[in-house]
Design a protein that fits this description.
Pfam families: HTH_18. The chain is an alpha+beta fold. The protein contains nine helices and four strands, in the order βαββαβααααααα. The longest helix has 19 residues.
Length: 186
């Protein structure tokens, strides 16, 4: 049985879900971002218990098909922004279409209708938060960050960062209190 999970955006979320499943004696076959495959069909009571446990981490089980598709779109985008270091061979729109077996136009319109934001705006928001994270960690230069996040240049990264935050990356780096937004709140 497949179960879809809202806001499951990182490896620590997967670990949290795995532990919750183990506590409830539910056997997981596969745990991916936004999706869990369990061995047996869950009862309504088991679903409620699981949902209650994972809500502590800001996660939530999805039931409706609309929510499931939105979460699948988000999972692909998050994976693309956070786990894709190499320069993409294909355009992001093609990647998204291939992974979700829908045309990009359909996915973009659907996402905009439900989320009141475009896929592009969501990608930019995630990238800006990822840039903030990498700046705070101080492990990469802006050039390395630009390359890692598939920007054509440091200038492109800086312009997009400033447009989204009102600050240049350098000014952000020099702030005493770094303001970040969690993936779940984007």
């Amino acid at each position: 049985m497949k179960i879809y999970v809202k806001n499951m955006a990182c490896e620590s979320c997967k670990i949290f879900v795995k532990e919750a499943l183990e506590e409830l004696d539910i056997t997981a076959i596969k745990i991916e971002l936004g999706e869990i495959e369990v061995k047996e069909e869950l009862t309504t009571g088991e679903k409620k218990k699981l949902n209650s446990k994972i809500k502590k981490a800001g996660l939530e089980l999805l039931e409706k098909k609309q929510g499931i598709l939105i979460e699948k779109i988000r999972s692909v985008i998050i994976d693309y922004v956070y786990n894709s270091d190499e320069k993409p061979v294909i355009k992001f729109s093609v990647l998204l279409s291939e992974k979700l077996n829908h045309s990009y136009t359909y996915l973009a319109n659907f996402f905009s209708e439900i989320e009141a934001s475009t896929i592009e705006q969501y990608v930019i928001s995630l990238k800006v938060e990822r840039i903030k994270e990498l700046i705070i960690l101080e492990e990469h230069t802006l050039s390395a960050i630009a390359f890692k996040l598939h920007y054509s240049s440091v200038s492109h990264l800086s312009n997009q960062f400033k447009k989204a935050t009102g600050l240049t990356p350098t000014h952000f780096k020099n702030l005493k209190e770094k303001r970040r937004i969690t993936i779940q709140n984007i």
